[in-house]
Amino acid sequence: MKISLPRRTATAAVIALAGLLATTAPAASAVPGAPTAPGTSARALAAPDIPVTNVKAHLTQLQSIATANGGNRAHGRPGYKASVDHLKAKLDAAGFITTVQQFSYLGTTGYNLIADWPGGDPNRVLMAGAHLDSVTAGAGINDNGSGSAGILETALAVAREGFKPAKHLRFAWWGAEELGLIGSRDYVNSLPSTERSKISGYLNFDMIGATNGGYFVYDDDPAIESALKGYLTGIGVATEPDTEGDGRSDHASFKNVGIPVGGLFTGAGRLKTAAQVQKWGGTAGRAFDPCYHRACDTLANIGDTTLDRSSDAIAHAIWTLSN
Ligand code: DTR
Ligand code: CA
Ligand code: ZN
Ligand code: ZN
């Protein structure tokens, strides 16, 4: 199903989708390399490693989209819609049910991209989201190509593995976050309260590949926090609660209506302290992301290690929390 609807009909699209959610995920046996041994349930398997080379390939494509569209992927600019179209095609090809939700902000059309993985309990929906828009100053590769690519590759891993989670999985890419969390707020407001109450948790990923990064886990829902923290501490990486972010990204739209939220962040414009360098390496007195909201937020502004660990943490959290 391909939907591109004006704001007023977005609710109808959500209701129409609900009927599709009970359908079965593509059979694991149809996926090359998927487990087929009798008694082996895909549900019991651990999350796969997310290949950072795949995540970086998505970032290369987002960079090309920005370069071809005046250097950015900002709300209302052609690079934003091109980013949506690009991701949608990948998700459609992998078997997701995608919806483009249009909204209007200050006279300009914005878009959210929603991708549902068929199957799972429609009354228990686990969501992961990232904003796909950049600021006008640059390509927005760390902010927030990184979160967008991290959840995209996790979604594609769900498809590759033929994952059959107990909960229903939904991935989302938000428009106009940089103008005040506009797209995510529009999505939450457009959901009938019955649909809203089915969302058991929302995980947000905004800036997960800082070059001088740290590992900040949102200090919110304890189960989501411990899934993300558990992965990182398990690979020997210390975390800190996020103090730069409360209310500053799309999780706030969900938290505001009582949905449990969490997420991971590798830092923005704040300076790394000497104590944080002890923990994570990097440079003290320098911003976690020195190119935050600047023209230099390009493909060169990505820390491969932060991006890799963060992407693996996303997959771990999705696999764990959906079962
Ligand atoms: N919302 C981000 C910047 C940001 C600042 N603090 C946090 C904490 C957690 C996630 C994101 C952020 C931006 O898009 O500019
Ligand atoms: Ca990895
Ligand atoms: Zn951001
Ligand atoms: Zn930003």
TrEMBL record:
Gene3D superfamilies: Zn peptidases. Its main location: secreted. Its cofactor is Zn(2+). Keywords: Aminopeptidase, Disulfide bond, Hydrolase, Metal-binding, Protease, Secreted, Signal, Zinc. The keyword Protein biosynthesis does not apply. Residues 1-27 form the signal peptide. Transmembrane segments: none annotated. The keyword Zinc applies. One of its GO terms (molecular function) is metal ion binding. It is found in: Secreted. Residues 112-317 form the Peptidase M28 domain. Pfam families: Peptidase_M28 (PF04389). One of its GO terms (biological process) is proteolysis. One of its GO terms (cellular component) is extracellular region. Belongs to the peptidase M28 family. M28A subfamily. PANTHER family: METALLOPEPTIDASE M28 FAMILY MEMBER, PEPTIDASE M28 DOMAIN-CONTAINING PROTEIN. Monomer. This is Aminopeptidase.
